[in-house]
Specification:
With 426 residues, the protein is α/β, with parallel strands linked by helices. Helices cover 25% and strands 20% of the residues. InterPro entries: Auxin_biosynth/cation_transpt, CHP04046_FMN-dependent, FAD/NAD-bd_sf.
Length: 426
């Protein structure tokens, strides 16, 4: 992979971009077209997370047609399919190769401060940069989340996080307790079961979605209905929206929905949310049935939205039978002994947190979340890209990240006084 090094003496630039994933390189694409000089700094290699922090069977959960990086919409022969990990890497690499980004790989940003003139000093392990604008596109997946009580679990029981898992062989023999039912948790549970491994699942409050409904993928219906064009400011509670867990379903083997009740019928042990660990003792909240009900409520709600859209517009679509709960827990298990249950490992799938410890600019709230309006901060010259719900549902995905990058690039262009046709930022 080529590394597009700048002249080392040229470290005073209009824009510095931190991170060379799809968000950072989308911003670079727009800045290159506008003739705005910049550098993209990446501590690893471009698209490091796609290459090294996804499991082998990983695939998209949204259809390929939603991949719309700037000037590089999906053009393959399976728009309604779901790209596998290696295909995703090929797609983003081809996007990066489609233009000449001023990229420096293996450069870690260690500190960003704003001086009294309003300019930024960007300290790195390869020297100091100064710039008028900084785009933070480092993503929100720096620190895997594990609860403090995980440290009290019997040391002989292996603990892994989503980022550590690549294939079933990474998990010791014996039963694996998968914790969390977001998109990663349910897919890794299924990955292990397909491999014939013994699995149990701690069910959290994540919502679920239909896959195919009334003849089309549910995401196709929602896109047609304008659901993905809704901005975070249009939602009833923007803070709650920003914190929402994604609906779970799968793109594996052509795509399917995941009904945990059916897995339970097939022998998968289900528990509620994990509340504590001590030695081999693991405790759970008595919330399994509530969490299953809440996930189904989301599932049924999406179906009802689609039904209403079909009826309102007189669309000819096949009917579907009503949803039925095929299983419910007779009791709620709130405590187990891992040794008695044969549990030899715990796979944590409860998310990540960003690490902005290097960012010493007044642009974060008390919880460490960026404060911005569609990526543009009150601290003039500071921007964020690639975060979930930066503006719309698609902001953290291939669907919307390019539009947000175009918006930020347009703001920068206007602030720099660069005269370029608006069509470059369409």
């Amino acid at each position: 992979m080529p590394v597009h090094d700048l002249n080392p003496a040229r470290t005073d630039l209009p824009v510095v971009i931190v991170g060379a994933g799809q968000a950072g390189l989308s911003a670079s694409w727009y800045l290159c077209r506008a003739g705005i000089e910049h550098v993209v700094l990446e501590r690893n290699v471009r698209f490091h997370a796609w290459k090294n922090q996804r499991w082998d069977s990983f695939c998209l959960v949204t259809p390929n047609w939603q991949c719309k990086l700037p000037g590089f919409a999906y053009a393959g022969d399976d728009p309604t399919g779901f790209m596998l990990k290696d295909q995703i890497v090929d797609y983003v690499e081809a996007f990066a190769d489609s233009f000449d980004a001023p990229l420096r790989e293996g450069v870690t940003v260690t500190r960003v401060v704003q001086d009294h003139d309003g300019r930024f000093e960007v300290d790195t392990d390869a020297g100091l940069y100064r710039s008028d604008h900084v785009i933070v596109a480092s993503g929100g997946y720096d620190r895997p989340v594990t609860p403090p009580f995980a440290a009290d679990l019997e040391p002989s029981i292996a603990q892994l996080h989503t980022r550590d898992y690549h294939r079933p062989g990474d998990v010791p023999e014996g039963r694996c307790l998968v914790v969390g039912t977001g998109q990663s948790g349910v897919q890794l549970m299924e990955d292990l079961r397909i491999a014939g491994r013994d699995v149990a699942l701690a069910v959290g409050p994540a919502p679920r979605s239909p896959r195919m409904y009334r003849g089309r993928d549910a995401t196709d219906w929602l896109h047609e209905m304008g659901h993905y064009a809704i901005t975070i400011d249009q939602t009833p509670d923007p803070k709650a929206t920003e914190a929402k867990t994604n609906h779970y379903m799968s793109g594996r083997d052509g795509g399917h929905e995941i009904d945990l009740r059916r897995f339970a019928l097939d022998g998968l042990p289900l528990y509620g949310s994990v509340t504590g660990m001590e030695g081999t003792r693991i405790t759970f909240a008595p919330d399994l049935e509530r969490n299953l009900d809440d996930a189904d409520r989301s599932y049924v709600g999406i179906r009802e939205m689609i039904d209403a859209h079909i009826e309102k517009n007189g669309i000819d679509a096949p009917e579907e039978p009503p949803f039925e709960k095929v299983w419910r827990p007779e009791t709620e298990t709130t405590e187990i002994d891992a040794a008695d249950e044969g549990i030899t490992s715990v796979l944590w799938c409860i998310g990540f947190r960003p690490d902005y410890g290097w960012l010493q600019v007044d642009c974060l709230d008390a919880t460490g979340r960026p404060v911005h309006k569609r990526g543009v901060c009150d601290a003039e010259g500071m921007y964020f890209l690639g975060l979930g719900w930066l503006n719309t549902w698609g902001s953290g995905r291939f669907l919307g990240v390019g539009e947000d990058a175009g918006h930020v690039a347009r703001v920068i262009r206007e602030r720099l006084g660069t005269q370029r046709p608006d069509r470059r930022f369409a």
